[in-house]
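Hi V.,

You were right to ask for the full record rather than a summary. Here it is.
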Amino acid sequence: MAELVAGAFLQSSFQVIIEKLASVGIRDYFSSNNVDELVKELNIALDSINQVLDEAEIKQYQNKYVKKWLDELKHVVYEADQLLDEISTDAMINKQKAESEPLTTNLLGFVSALTTNPFECRLNEQLDKLELLAKQKKDLRLGEGPSASNEGLVSWKPSKRLSSTALVDESSIYGRDVDKEKLIKFLLEGNDGGNRVPIISIVGLGGMGKTTLAKLVYNDNKIKKHFELKAWVYVSESFDVFGLTKAILKSFNPSADGEYLDQLQHQLQDMLMGKKYLLVLDDIWNGSVEYWEQLLLPFNHGSSGSMIIVTTREKEVACHVLKSTKLFDLQQLEKSNCWRLFVTHAFQGKSVCEYPNLETIGRKIVDKCGGLPLAIKSLAQLLHKKISEHEWIKILETDMWRLSDGDHNINSVLRLSYHNLPSDLKRCFAYCSIFPKGYRFEKEVLIKLWMAEGLLKCCGSDKSEEEFGNEIFGDLESISFFQRSFGTYEDYCMHDLVNDLTKSVSGEFCMQIEGARVEGINERTRHIQFAFSSQCGDDLFLTNPNGVDNLLEPICELKGLRSLMLGQGMGVVMCITNNMQHDLFSRLKFLRMLTFSGWHLSELVDEIGKLKLLRYLDLTYTGIKSLPDTICMLYNLQTLLLKDCYQLTELPSNFSKLINLRHLELPCIKKMPKNMGKLNNLQTLSYFIVEAHNESDLKDLAKLNHLHGTIHIKGLGNVSDTADAATLNLKDIEELHTEFNGGREEMAESNLLVLEALKPNSNLKKLNITHYKGSRFPNWLRGCHLPNLVSLELKGCKLCSCLPTLGQLPSLKKLSIYDCEGIKIIDEEFYGNNSTIVPFKSLEYLRFEDMVNWEEWICVRFPLLKELYIENCPKLKRVLPQHLPSLQNLWINDCNMLEECLCLGEFPLLKEFLIRNCPELKRALPQHLPSLQKLGVFDCNELEELLCLGEFPLLKVFSIRNCLELKRALPQHLPSLQKLGVFDCNELEASIPKSDNMIELDIQNCDRILVNELPTSLKKLLLRRNRYTEFSVHQNLINFPFLEALELNWSGSVKCPSLDLRCYNFLRDLSIKGWCSSSLPLELHLFTKLQSLYLYDCPELESLPMGGLPSNLIQLGIYNCPKLIGSREEWGLFQLNSLKCFTVADEFENVESFPEENLLPPTLEILQLYNCSKLRIMNKKSFLHLKSLNRLYILD
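Predicted structure:
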């Protein structure tokens, strides 16, 4: 779609140009008469153009010359804006020089500026261009007919602007109840997809509510209880197997990571093994069958009942590419539900009966929206509080309804919403075209980008640019142009159709480049965002610095470029040479925003100082080691992001010259530059370091009066003059981290006075105090002074003998106390028992760690406590309060003297209990934990009894390790048990509990456990080094139809049991160790799903079973099976066309050369040879046909 509503965008740009030209700095730079004349002539030209902009906006769809005229006009406006920025920057530099140079030098410079001003001529050139464009409107027949300037435009005065608090709850969704219940029913029934996980596709037009329906289902309580694991991943148009696999893995487990697809897929497979999961893949556009099959490989290892939901506009993709098990074809909303949705968002709590004149008009407007929820919601939110009948009629009768552009008129509705926004909102929204579909952005980051582009100049207002940007963001969110990303992230995204609208607004002025080629750019391109993926080209190209240089070379020709966002793709390490940096910085002199986030970048070249107009520089997650001094010449810089630049230790000495800097995000550097107090525009500062013997640092911090948000102050132990601390202005700080590192132990009293003087404001929400050397805590650390404190962390406060009265902090939800070795008892003072207020009435999370001298805990009730963690408290004997009605998670680690845990308590909601390394513990659990789902007991050597009499109806995961005295622990009836692991418990006498739901069993080094009867529901079975393992005659591993992974280790067993393994259907991974017979009683070729086979330490094994190996085998490993290696040519490896990895660990006695010709298949990718000390020759000829081999390991 072509550029849209350029007129509205240009109107606000005109105003900005006039205001800049009339500013004091530019007037002083020229003679005022010259400026007055320029402003007058410019006003005439712009006013002439402004009269026809809205008319041109409509006519551009019928007349290509009108569109061309609008594009040229926007191009000239950009040029004028850039020129004015150059002038104001030059004026600012001259002013700074004037303040530091002798008077005679200043006079000479002033006289020179009067006689030879290079900018005046260029200004007149821009004026000529605008006057020419003003004259061309007659040739285009603009302004000749009835005025269309107010066509369909309703007034939106800034004073009536909606705030983000006016948002309607997302649960106000209509007309999808039946669809929701059908989908939930299908998910709960656990329909079998055969050999692959079932895929449910929700198909419908853009804006129909596919994602909304998926969210409703995903968050339903029945679904939450039904699935063990859930994940939500946005896919988008760019299909990338590696990137998508990594995103899915991280959605299931945020700490997971990997660099190779094979590595990621194995992690994902292990994570899903035997678990019932739900995965939602939102907004799928394309992808080949081959790529999808590769992506879905790990997902066939989950438990029966696992499901994948996808949303897509393309029925072809759902049916033929994904081969969906079930198709939900989402239809338009019924008329009645359309009206209900409109009323909810347009009238917001008011009765439509109060506005009878609007109901008829509103119903007609709704009919034009085509039953699409996104269109209805967006338009209704636009009309909220616009209760004039005249304004609603304008919307109804506007010609813009007829400007359709696909997707069932959805774009015409969104276009209409955009058209009726104030000009400042239009400009900010248009800038968002730099983001690709599905891109997640943070509110604060986007506001800083708007600032860098100069979109937040709020003339005649006391608001800061950040405050103005926050209002604009709220307005765009209120009409659903922005929406919160799904999941736990505090970020936002745009609907695909809204993203399409931003692209249409910006047209050729904003480009996104994916892959290894730069296409579609021209001299008008002002904003570029690069996106790289693992499939956008040859890996060598992307990791080759010269390859990236070649990619960026065309960009250097775009002399008017203002934004360059060099993104980092998953699995791609991007590098840039110093030569390319030199070219970029020297030739792109109008850059306002530049980001290298995530790039492999160790230094910036000096030419960075040439970017005089740069306002936003992002170097986060780079390997930058130092910043050049020339960075201090970036006088316009507002935002500098250096987060996680761990190799950066200090800033340039002249850093204080960056007088316009507003946001500075630092890593933990070693020292601050001098005169930081001169940065009096600074609003956010992540770290401040006070050096030893340099307390002027703190005086500099005191001069920064506009700081808000979060700050870490390190080195407070170096402060001796408490008066400096008292001058700090922390009134707007919401999160304060104080570190008293530095100084001497004898400065304890000084530490106390400094902390007392730091008294934060009452709005503080988070406080961390670290390495504090005072003997007591400050008086302000109590409820009446910090009523809004939500999180508190005390760490390394070693000289304090008692904790402050924290129980009276009314809003405290999270409390963590670490390494406070002076604490021996926690008593009534901790709670504030002299008060009538219930202590810790909001506390949900409590952690004690490394409290090495803590002996006694006098407990009270914690009514809302959900999580309790006690770690490395070696002298604590008794742990818990007796009544924790809300407790859900309990972890106890390394408490050496702990004798009792929670034997007598009441814990009705406890779901997860982990206890580790408590050697004196003899009893652990009460008899009844009705909600317990996960239990782990490790390294408790004196534990004798655990839960033999207990009732645990919901227990799903149970693990015991290294409890040498434990004799009774396994109840015979655990109906919900899914995973059982028992390790190194030689005294434990028990049989396997009965459970129809058990899917994973792992018994290791347990000589007295009877494994003669096993649940037939098992998917994963591991029996390792158990001396007495015998299968009953009637079972003998025959009755395991769902078994997918089997590991049997008879090392150290009295005898190898008889073995009849017939679990052919699903077995994928088989490992056998210590088999003592000459043959395996298995028909391996019948295991058609077997992908991995490993044999270890089978010295008597001479051959593989009759029939050979299964054809789908991918990995084969033979370790210390000397007789079996001798028969290798009989295995038929050459015929295994799926085999990719072959491992042999053997001395190769009597083997002259390896491998023999035609021994290995051509599909082999990895060959590993270990302990091959007697192997003499590697047969070169045998490698000639191994075209796929990419890794060969030979280790002795």
